[in-house]
Every structure is written in structure tokens, then in C-alpha cells.
Amino acid sequence: MTSSPILVTGGAGFIGSHLVERLVDAGYEVDVVDNLSTGSLANLRTARGKGDRGLRFHRLDIVDGDLDALMMRRQPWAVIHLAAQVNVRESMLDPVGDLVTNVVGSLRVLEAARHSGVSKVIFATSAGIYGAITSTDLPVREDVAHLPDSFYGLSKDTVLAYLRLYRVNFDLDYTALVLANVYGPRQGILGEGGVVAKFAQAIISGEQASILGDGSQTRDFVYVDDVVDAFYRSLEHGSGLTLNIATGIETSINTLHKEMYRIAGSEYRQPVYCQPIPGEIMRSSLDARRAGWYLRWHASTTLERGLERVVEWYEDLDSQTARS
Ligand SMILES: NC(=O)c1ccc[n+]([C@@H]2O[C@H](COP(=O)([O-])OP(=O)(O)OC[C@H]3O[C@@H](n4cnc5c(N)ncnc54)[C@H](O)[C@@H]3O)[C@@H](O)[C@H]2O)c1
User: Fold this and answer.
1) What is the pLDDT of residues 171-205, one digit of tens each?
2) What CA–CA distance (Å, rounded) separates 13 from 84?
3) How far is ligand 1, taken at its centre, from the CA of residue 83, in Å?
4) Residues 225-257: pLDDT tens digits?
5) pTM above the 0.90 mark?
6) Burial of 134: CB neighbours in 10 Å, binned 0-12, 13-18, 19+
7) Which end of the chain is more exposed for a tag (fewer CB within 10 A), N or C?
8) CATH numbers and ranges of domains, the chain
9) 186 CA distance to ligand 1 centroid (A)?
């Protein structure tokens, strides 16, 4: 293991904070860059509790912060780039804002990485790069045509082309992970797997959850620890590749809703069905066999076990709040 640090952008966010814990556990020095727009220092509490030796936090914006100076000073050998505008609907309201954070911000990260001699960038991209897929093509493979139908999907797709060119022209290696709907403790409700957090909050507070559309739409829910494991493996493997990180299993929003009540042991409350999001993808699942071949990775957490952990986390949070 090299002694120079790993830099994680967006490390104070949902996925980032779990990843930082794993890296600190493994003995890496970790530099977190985050502007705390959706992330928080509270998310890093567990990582900090593991001892302060290896963890440094830099409150910095990837768009206009001086990443060059930071990376020249810290000399990370790898950058895991998670910082992003993560809200699909926000990207439709403000395509320019989405582009600035997700494309220009990513370019700033790549520029600082090449100037400071970083060996590898690992990038979090999204199933939104593929757009709506005909059901015969499910679960989606990486070689399907990319036809994003949101600006978020487009900005996440655009960065893949930059990663390829940086590798060819500047010898900056990369792995891009196409994440399905990630869920787990600490998740906000606005990101892609946010429906799990939304249902958990409704169950704990005894309120009815709302479902956009008729709830028959399906998603591929992958547990955050499994996603973290894929990033970890990408430090050593998956050179120059784009790899789906998913379970390959479709779960409908209605099934998820019922399952979470069963796991929580709470009295079932019917959801409120609201207007669907225009153009919402009805079915989604990703084929992750390629990650199996190149990273020796597969999703090992069942939906039931993952949801149990989420429900437990919300129950703990609820009892801590009640005590304070
Ligand atoms: N959660 C999912 O289901 C999912 C699915 C596919 C892809 N992704 C991708 O994974 C990554 C992490 O997502 P997440 O779910 O943990 O979301 P998150 O919102 O919890 O994390 C994003 C982090 O980036 C930070 N950030 C945002 N803009 C920034 C900027 N300009 N400068 C510096 N920091 C900034 C935020 O403060 C936050 O800590 C994102 O790139 C997202 O697009 C997530």
C-alpha cells in the first residue's frame, strides 16, 4: 500500500462517508473534499471516531475551489470522485447548474489530478446515462446505446468521454462505476435511491408515504456497503472500464413499500399515490456481470438484510432524537 493519500470528493455525503470509513479502516490516509451542500460533517463522525491520524477534511467547491493547489500539496495517488449535483429533477429545472457542477466540476477534478500526477480517478456515474430501456434489454449491459433522458444522465455520461480522453492523452487511468439505486443509512431523500429513506422516515414517524405514479415502476436497489466494496476494488482493478454496480434484480416501489413495513414490524399504512413524474423510466435493472469479471465483485447484501439495517438505523436515530 502506498503512503500517499486517497482523495475523495463528496466524501461527506451518503456514499462518500461510508467509503471514507472503509478506506480509513484499511489504513489509508484520506483527504475529503466537500462543499457540504448536501453532505455534512456529522456523516464523517464514525470515520473520525476511528482515529484522526488518517483523515483530513477540506471544505472546498469542486467548481471554483483551488483543487490544483490542494492536490499539488497533498499528492494523492488516487481520486474517487463522488461530488455532484445528484437530483434528477433539479437537473431538469436547471440544466446549466447541473452541467456546471457535474461536467465543469468533474473537469476541474481531472485537471487537478493530471497536474499533480494522480495515477487513477474512480468516478461515480448513474444508470441515468442509459435512459429508458426496452424491457427485452433488461438487465442493461454497459454496451447498450447511451440515450440519457435527463440532463443529470447527460452530464454523468459526458464525463465518461472526458475520462477516456484523459486516459488516452495524459495517461490518467480511470474506472467509472455505473451505480444503480443505492440505499443505506444516512441517505438523503433527494438522491436516486432516496425512496428507501423516504419510506423509512414515513414508517418511523407514523405518516403515510407518498408514491409518485402507481408504484409499479421498478428499480434495482443496491446496498451502500456493496457499492463501497466496488469502489475499493476499483483502486486496483477495472482499468479504463465502465462497470455496472447493481444486483440485476427489479423491485417495484409498491413491493419495496410493503416489504419495509413488514421488516419494521409496523402496522401497514396505505401510501398516497401522486402524479407520476413525466417521462419517468418505468423499469430499471443493470447487469453487473462485467464487474464480477473485472473487479471480482458482486452484490452480497440481500434487499431484506439491507432494509433491516436501514430500519435499525432510523430507529436508533429516532431514539437518540427523543433522548436529546
Ligand atoms: N445514491 C444513489 O443512488 C446514486 C446512484 C447513482 C449515482 N450516484 C452518484 O454517487 C455520487 C454520490 O451520491 P450520494 O448519493 O452519496 O449523494 P450525496 O448528495 O449524499 O453526496 C454528494 C456529495 O457531494 C457534495 N457536493 C455537491 N456539490 C459539490 C461541489 N460543487 N463541490 C464539492 N462538493 C460537492 C455534497 O455536499 C455531498 O456531500 C454522486 O456522484 C451521484 O451522482 C448516486
Assistant:
1) 999 999 999 999 999 997 766 668 999 999 999 98
2) 10
3) 5
4) 999 999 999 999 999 999 999 999 999 999 999
5) yes
6) exposed
7) C
8) 6-183+222-248+285-300 (3.40.50.720)
9) 12
